[in-house]
Amino acid sequence: MTPVLQTEGLTKRYGQRPALSDVTLDIPAGRIVGLVGPNGAGKSTLLNLASGLLTPSAGTIRVLGARPAGDAAQLARVGFVAQDTPVYAGLTVADHLRLGERLNPRWDGALARRRIEQVGLDPAQKAGRLSGGQRAQLALTVAAAKRPELLIFDEPVAALDPLARRAFLQNLMEFVAELEVSVVLSSHLLSDLERVCDHLVVLASSRVQVDGEVEDLLKTHYRLVGARGDLDELPAGVELVHAEHTERQSTLVVRADGPLPGAVKHADHLDLEDMILAYLTRDALGAHR
Question: What's the Cα-to-Cα distance from 48 to each of 75, 181, 234, 289, rounded to whole Å?
Fold first, then answer.
């Protein structure tokens, strides 16, 4: 099966400032990919490159096996919802569906009308008068009714209250099941990613810090606790992600593909949020040294 997203040495600069540096990814189709990182990490740049809104400064990127936005057929294969779930304030809900039908050759009008009814949107209501949650549902419906093979979301729920966020993610999961679509979802809300994502990409300082299947990553990441000095030397196959020390004790987050050090007194697997925060903390500390 063709990967949903492939990059090799992908680099994007704005003037002399790198937004992405030497990014190499190979993400299988059929995944819900969580893309996470601090502000300025390069998340939006990567998604805009994948959507064809930007072109690389160096390296390559292929989406569903082809150049992003290479032609009308490729554009139809990808649904993109940018930050702030953009809709046209002066158009009604029904106008958005009619516009979607005119612009998209695989438009599924029945699906769009059904989902609008299910989430309680008034077709005659102008988008500018909808709540944030309602605008998000409208943007999601328009993107999904294209019948794409890939849905890309850039911080779609950041401004929503918890109930609206939950409703949006629930509807997203329903679309994934119904359309058998791949998803790349950028978010700062780690608990939301933990609920829905099965593949993870962590970006910081324009570079990939870690990526892989969530299940595999959780199996290979540990929090180790030992006496101060006992964990100073790690065996081959154990990568230090982040360390904290007191006078008597060391606490390490590691990625271990082999056996753990014998001096470990206590080892726990991390949850997804703690694992992500360990990589982001490592990057933040390194950037300030």
Answer: 13, 19, 40, 31
> Are 8 and 60 contacting, i.e. CB atoms less than 8 angstroms apart?
yes
Three-state DSSP string of 192-222: HHHHHCCEEEEEECCEEEEEEEHHHHHHHEE
The structural domains of the chain, with segments of one domain joined by +, span 5-204, 217-287
pLDDT of residue 22: 97
> Per CATH, the architecture of 5-204 is what?
3-Layer(aba) Sandwich (3.40)
In contact, 21 and 37? CB cutoff 8 Å? no
C-alpha span between 123 and 98 (Å, rounded): 11
Give, for 12, the enclosing helix (H) or strand (E). strand 5-14
Q: What distance in Å separates the CA atoms of residue 55 and residue 89, rounded to the nearest whole number?
A: 29
- Are 89 and 127 contacting, i.e. CB atoms less than 8 angstroms apart? yes
Query: With left for phi above 0 and alpha for psi between -120 and 50, is residue 102 left, alpha or beta?
Result: alpha
pLDDT of residue 85: 67
pLDDT tens per residue, range 41-82: 999 999 999 999 999 999 999 999 999 999 989 999 999 988
- As a whole number, the mean pLDDT across the chain is 92
- pLDDT, residue 106, reads 92
**Alpha-carbon distance values, 264 to 116, 163, 245, 254, 267 (Å):** 55, 42, 14, 12, 7
- pLDDT for the residue 289: 46
The segments of the chain whose pLDDT lies below 70 read: 85, 287-289
Report which secondary-structure segment, H or E, holds 103. Answer: helix 93-103
Q: Which residues of 118-135 are buried (b: 16+ CB within 10 A; e: fewer)?
A: ebebeeeeebeebebbbb
Specify which residues 239 forms β-bridges with: 255
> Does an H or E element contain 7, and which?
strand 5-14
